[in-house]
Amino acid sequence: MKSFKELGVHKDFVKALDGLNISIPSEIQILSIPVLLGDRTDFIGRAQTGTGKTAAFGLPLLQSVDVSRNEIQGLVLCPTRELGQQIAKSLFRFTKFSDKIFTEAVYGGEKIDRQIGALRRPTHIVVATPGRLIDLLKRKALSLDKVKTVILDEADEMLSMGFKKELNQILDFVPQEANKWLFSATMPHDIREMIKEHLSDDAHRVETSGKTLVNENIEHKYFVCDEEEKLHVLLQFINSQYKERGIIFCRTKKATQHLAKQLIAKNISTDAIHGDLYQKERDKVLRAFKKEKLQLIVATDIAARGLDIDALSYVVHYQLPESEEYYTHRSGRTARAGNSGLSMAFVTAFESNKLRAYEKSLDISFERVR
Ligand code: AMP
């Protein structure tokens, strides 16, 4: 078993990783880090979120920065604001014990003037959504002339969100010799086309088994009940949690809204977030939750992506997710920053079979609660 140090990660970063409970490198990290730290190369990594890919590209990226130069040396492109914020936060956390490396995240949906102002400060790495980056480039708010590394994270998501034109423009804008590291969960035709056009023919390719990392500090439990009993059982569970805060997951927007209403009717301070809310509305709910004005959030998987809330004591799967990757995402909302947490699923007898499949593929075990 290799350690991060053996993969070539600088000891200051290793120390920060230890503090984050990241001590055994994941598959994608083992496959990527030595390559990305080594010869300057283009790189194609097939990996999903939840596999540890942020550290897989983030550590080599940080290590490539020359802090004595006040220039943007790294560019990370990603599909959404939430993911951008999450990447920037991870990079920041990795540098807790190292020289200060400045990362700025820029994305749509926030005042551009503020981001233009922020970019005037020393910045080594920019994390950006493609549309906003183009806007900023047009306004000459930043220069990509000195960029040595460009990372495309969740490239397939960016293309399916319609950012093809923007990505092509950006890739034409960065220096020819910059290294391009592309990460994608899937390799559809348009990704392969983009690779052909912008990455070198001898780009290093790695593929992972797709196993996602599940935090070991999470207890996975489940309770079997009929659909009609779920609300009652949920209320009992919430009461047993002594006002601790948590997130309850449903599969659809309609289900989140319905459940939030039912909980409010029981005097539990709750709000729902789902993909149809404007960013502002979502932020408002999140602020209320962070300020502990809300005890619970009922959320869809999409809305909960990248939510950055520490110290959640539990998550509830009121409905099981569509894919097991989402199970990892959902349960990963608890047990953050070294805390422990509980991931509680309410399932029908029929659905409990699905949990057996999770146990196998995610390498976790569920305890049945009666
Ligand atoms: P990512 O796929 O980069 O979004 O990472 C998913 C989660 O796994 C994040 O919460 C990371 O902090 C965590 N993580 C990353 N690498 C490791 C590791 N080697 N061991 C344990 N947790 C990790």
Characterization of the model:
The protein is an alpha/beta fold. The chain folds into two domains: 204 residues, P-loop containing nucleotide triphosphate hydrolases (Rossmann fold, 3-Layer(aba) Sandwich), CATH 3.40.50; 151 residues, Rossmann fold (3-Layer(aba) Sandwich). The strands form two sheets. A seven-stranded parallel beta sheet has the order 3-4-2-5-6-1-7, with helices on both faces. Strands 10-11-9-12-13-8-14 form a seven-stranded parallel beta sheet, with helices on both faces. α13 links the parallel β10 and β11. α3 runs parallel beside α4, α4 packs across α5 and α7 crosses α9. The radius of gyration is 21 Å and the shape is globular. The model has no long low-confidence stretch (mean pLDDT 90). Adenosine monophosphate binds next to α4.
Keywords:
370 residues, alpha/beta, Rossmann fold, 2 domains, 7-stranded parallel β-sheet, 16 helices, 41% helix, 17% strand, globular, binds adenosine monophosphate
Number of domains: 2
Distinct ligand kinds: adenosine monophosphate
Unreliable stretches covering 5 or more consecutive residues: none
> What's the β-strand tally?
14
Major beta sheet, specifics?
7 strands, parallel
Would you tell me which CATH topology of the largest domain applies? Answer: Rossmann fold
Global mean pLDDT: 90
How are the strands of the biggest sheet laid out side by side? 3-4-2-5-6-1-7
- Computed CA radius of gyration, to the nearest angstrom: 21 Å
